[in-house]
Endolytic murein transglycosylase
Amino acid sequence: MSDTNQSNGTPNGQKGPIIPKSANEALRPERVPDPPKRSRKARSQMVIFLNFLMTLVVFVIVLAIIGAYYAISAYQSPGPLATNSNFIVRSGAGLAEISNRLEANNLISDARIFRYMTATNLHDGETLRSGEYEIKAGASMKDIMELLKSGKSILYSVTLPEGLTVRQIFNKLQADPVLEGELPSALPAEGSLRPDTYKFTRGTKRTEIVQQMAGAQEKLVDQIWQKRDPNLTLANKQEFVTLASIVEKETGLADERAHVASVFLNRIGKGMRLQSDPTIIYGLFGGDGKPSDRPIFQSDLKKETAYNTYIIKGLPPTPIANPGRDALEAVANPWKTQDLYFVADGTGGHVFAATLEEHNANVKRWRKLVAEKGEDPSAIAVDGQPDDGAATTTGSGTQQKKKTN
């Protein structure tokens, strides 16, 4: 073997003679060379800080992802409410207040999640609206947010039937436990409020209902007045509403109101007094109405008031109640009849007559029905009845005396 070959077998390519090694030396591990030293640039404080910052950013992002997933999951998961419950959002309440109150009432599990998630779900101009809401059992925070955003709060209602006076309407509004605030200090004009059922949310003011009623009645009267019979002899809307209020109080049957209206219009056309019991009652008791246990006496027919149509000619100075649509339409488009009288028929309606003779016969039949029921017919007044008990001229009978308390 040449020297060249021998040199190639030396460690590290070094040239020289081969030095034999002992067995211990041959088995001894060779020294591992030191790793290369880091550059000055890699060891700088800036690089160390940037590395730390990157690590921190990654850590925060991971936490944010985990937190967002948890918040979204909690926001959409069923809530803790076991049974349906009402919740009131007061006017002007902010998102923080609403969130805290929801949690305090055990409607949601976490006010902070509701607050922040709701804020991200509300678009420009959207807000949680005031009102009283029914929260369903198990409703999620998202469900609650959608409900409060919709404004579909619980609706209450107050029913104000036809024929009530303004004062009686005010008494009903005052007694309603959900409505708030005081009523107007001055009573609106009689006949100016529309009878109807009005829906409202908790927190609605009593004055708001009165305003709704006034606006609705004005609109209704204008609409019906414009479509009135062109031959109607009433001069203006005031007379129109006044007669409608009398018709409203005279009969509770919608299908005979136009007939009753024709009787009163025929009497006005002939210069006859209306002789309507409800006008007597209003003249005596005003908007408070007649006590239920107080009958109409013969002496009442002769008491001078501005509303006693047994004494005055034509219509009274104002309406005597608030008429509804049916009564207004009946007066605007009355039946074409020659009838001048009507009296109760004992079955809830009336029987009409064009002549006094026919009417007297109807009154006798009615008195017989009353007597058969065990009542004293002489104790019950008939409109226009004279002192001796013989019927002469009349409007309605006893059916309406019960109705116009």
